[in-house]
Amino acid sequence: MAWYVGRRLLQMVPVFLGATLLIYAMVFALPGDPIQALGGDRGLNEAVAAQLRAEYNLDKPFFVQYLLYLKGILTLDFGTTFSGREVIDVMGEVFPVTFQLSIMALTFEAVLGITVGLIAGLRKGKLFDATALLVSLVVIAVPIFVIGFVLQFVVGVKLQWLPVTVGGDVTFRTLLMPAIVLGAVSFAYVLRLTRTSVAENLTADFVRTATAKGLSRSRVVNVHVLRNSLIPVVTYLGADLGALMAGAIVTEGIFNIPGVGNTLYRAIQQGQAPTVVSLVTVLVVVYIVANLFVDMLYALLDPRIRYA
Amino acid sequence: MKIRRIAGFAASLTVGALVLTACSSTPGDTETTQGSAGGPSTGIVTANSSEPQNPLIPTNTNETGGGKILDLIFAGLVNYDAQGNPQNEVAESIESEDSQNYTITLKDGWTFTDGTDVTASSFVDAWNYGALLSNDQLSSYFFEDIEGFSWDEDSELTGLEVVDDKTFTVALKQPAADFPLRLGYSAYFPLPEVAFEDIEAFGENPIGNGPYMLDGEGAWQHNIGIDLVPNPDYQGDRTAQNGGVSLKFYETQDAAYNDLLADQLDVLDAVPDSAFGTFEDELGDRAVNQPAAIFQSFTIPMTLERFSGEEGTLRRQAISMAINRQEITDAIFQGTRTPAKDFTSPVIAGWSEDVSGSEVLAYNPDEAKRLWAEADAMAPFTGTFTIGYNTDGGHQAWVDAVTNSIKNTLGIQAEGKPYPTFQALRDDVTNRTITGAFRTGWQADYPGLYNFLGPLYGTNAGSNDGDYSNPEFDDLIKQGSAAQSIEEANTFYQQAQEVLFQDLPAIPLWYSNVTGGSATTVDNVEFGWNSVPLYYQVTKS
């Protein structure tokens, strides 16, 4: 097991190098000179622009820039933003916010998705099942920003039940609506996955055996059906954590959340390579770790899966 | 210039309703709620803003996110009232015999919030810091008229001389009648001595002499907002009428607008495109929609084939007359733009809507066709007329409308030429590799006509992207700068505009309006000449 984890962690090194190189190259390829853009329509005097370019290493060839960036990372120096702030400080501010939002969204989609999916699966073909499927279809079909704007306007502006935006007030209450919006689509997928899986396992041999042994209905459902049905769901949820963190850009924009998405969006617009690369790299790492965690969970859910 | 971050998307052409809103066209005409003029209120006013793109150092701030804060925590030699008229703030007097050598005396009793006095050195040292080449200050160009300034090497501003604690003199390289007018811009603010010890730390927790100060260390929460409280030692006329100002940073204007509707934000200075058609109904008399000091145009490079010489002049005039500005501002911008009448802005003192030659801005398809045919008689036009624009700023809708207007009137091929980002467009413009017309915009740094003319159309001027050059224009600008008073200078500047209307180096389109509003929680909301609300006079109980 330890050997397996070690090998997986070692795999992160080439992934990390590849990801940073690719992202750095993409930001480098963005059209336009980010330094001149600092001056707006007026532009900057060439003397000042040249000095600023030198300060941010933008006057050097691509590979030199990239190697300087990598060298910085080894000493935990992720570079500075155009406003003179350390990128690592920026990351320290935005990641906790987005992480909290993503965990809330994940909890929402997991708890509600599995519960509704289980009931729907147990009552396959009944009214509850049909309704749940219809609702999930609608949620999947409607773009997330439409759900966001509508919910914000109705619940926030008109009914005033929850705050309209988050801003600096990052609490459970302010993040509740954004988390629901962020997790909405995944909720629908989790629901459908659970439902299908449960419905399938209900007819499996081991369930018939368990029922024949005289086990109670609740024990059959909770231990035998649900536990076995969760494997595809957990796979999905694990991959989804990364997707939620990276995909919060739209939600963070609508609800004005000072998280990774907003910062990333602005950094891309301004062509700030160190900020973009650092943020995305951390997202890549989160993705890898979450998937490793999921693989570990398999062993817990199904003793037949062993890692040697 | 202050760069305004434009978020959001273009108002789509398919928005059918042609809402005719009342665009005020008189300078300083404000649509605000006038509350009872009582004593100061105690509530903390919340307002929208955006994360400053640079540390809060006056000479290194050139965008509105930082500018809003600096204007509140600093007091310069002069400030501007809502109409853009300068009035002395820290200055007791600004005197000059020849518009080139100025003697500036300061009022007594002014202090920074760290207790030190505001002296002549506070200004001279700050300006020298801002002008020094190796300090890379984004607003250093504000000092280029002062004797001693250099773009090539570090050099002291030898034109600045401290006479005594409260007096200093300024020697300019050439006369500038509007120099006193410029002094209200943030680049000219004074700095306390402590600033130079560690300028980076200062930029994080600036110490000023304005009506407000930061609410303690760390009042600036990055990407979230900044809390300002009244400065009890403030000496000027902009005394805070509220218990403080809390600026909240928004990434999208939609979020800020929804907060305003829910009374969770008090003052908003940027209505999102999506609400252009509805905000005046939703906010009623709390809505603001008035011209701002922002001029929009597109520039046709002087060297563009078929657009130079006598033939080019005819074509430029034809194109200008082929654009139905009123219809486009109504249909696409829902009345949140005001059709241009000149090359400046109606909020600037000295603005006139009937500068001789401005007829070319009126929609006149018959005359346009006639002039175009006349030019074609000299040499026929082939190919496509293009207007370059950046797709990240909501420009596509109007560019399409303008090129359609040209196409339909003149019967030529005309289309927009999209660039993915603002940077990409500017690259092509700066390198002079652009092969067609391109959009240009200008927001004034200070309320003077010169600011819209000299830097854009003077021969070899910094922002003369179309390489326009006309000795007659240069001469009139020079005479204006050497004039004895602003009023006298303005008559020269208006004559210079007549030259521009002849040559049309750029085709004026419209003035951007400031669109905003206030929640039911506050009173006395008025917008300044630069489209920023006068936060200090807002009252909230």
From TrEMBL, chain A:
Coiled coil: none annotated. The keyword Cell membrane applies. PROSITE patterns: ABC_TM1 (PS50928). CDD domains: TM_PBP2 (cd06261). GO terms for cellular component: plasma membrane. Gene3D superfamilies: MetI-like (1.10.3720.10). It is a multi-pass membrane protein. InterPro entries: BPD_transp_1_N, MetI-like, MetI-like_sf. It is found in: Cell membrane. It comes from the Bacteria. Residues 95-298 form the ABC transmembrane type-1 domain. Keywords: Cell membrane, Membrane, Transmembrane, Transmembrane helix, Transport. PANTHER family: DIPEPTIDE TRANSPORT SYSTEM PERMEASE PROTEIN DPPB-RELATED, DIPEPTIDE-TRANSPORT INTEGRAL MEMBRANE PROTEIN ABC TRANSPORTER DPPB-RELATED. Belongs to the binding-protein-dependent transport system permease family. This is ABC transporter permease.
